[in-house]
Structures are given as structure tokens and as C-alpha cells.
């Protein structure tokens, strides 16, 4: 049982001290995600504007 605890302790220590993350890669990923989010919001806004225009046009024709 002591060996199991020793192995778990070593594994826990190694996992806690993992600093292998590449900060440049994380920054690039964050920028890419931000750009794709902005593009999605812009596309959604364009779709809503087109739908509003279509709806207004349909309403205008019924009034005439």
C-alpha cells in the first residue's frame, strides 16, 4: 500500500508541476477564437438585418 501511495504522490507531483503549455500558442488560439466569434456575430447581425428587411417589405405590400 505504501508503494501505491508513493506512486500516486509522484504522479500527482508530476501533474501539478506540468508547465509544458506554450503561451504563444495559447495567445494565437485566443486571437483565433476571438476573430471567429466576431465573424459569427457579424454574420448573425447581417442575417437579422436581411430578415427585418424582408419582413418590413412584406408588411409594406399588405398596406397598399
Which terms would index this structure?
64 residues; mainly alpha; 0% strand
List the helices and strands and how they pair.
Layout: H1 2-16, H2 23-63
Description of the structure:
With 64 residues, this protein is mainly α. It has a domain at 21-64. 88% of the residues lie in helices and 0% in strands. The chain has 2 helices and no strands. The model has no long low-confidence stretch (mean pLDDT 75).
Task: Give the proportion of residues in helices.
Answer: over 70%
Strand content: under 5%
Which word captures the global form? elongated
Number of strands: 0
Short description:
The chain is mostly helical and about 60 residues long. The chain has 2 helices and no strands.
Amino acid at each position: 500500500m505504501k508503494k501505491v501511495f508513493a506512486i500516486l504522490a509522484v504522479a500527482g507531483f508530476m501533474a501539478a508541476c506540468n508547465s509544458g503549455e506554450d503561451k504563444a500558442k495559447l495567445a494565437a488560439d485566443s486571437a483565433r477564437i476571438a476573430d471567429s466569434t466576431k465573424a459569427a456575430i457579424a454574420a448573425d447581425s447581417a442575417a437579422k438585418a436581411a430578415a427585418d428587411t424582408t419582413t418590413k417589405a412584406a408588411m409594406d405590400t399588405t398596406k397598399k
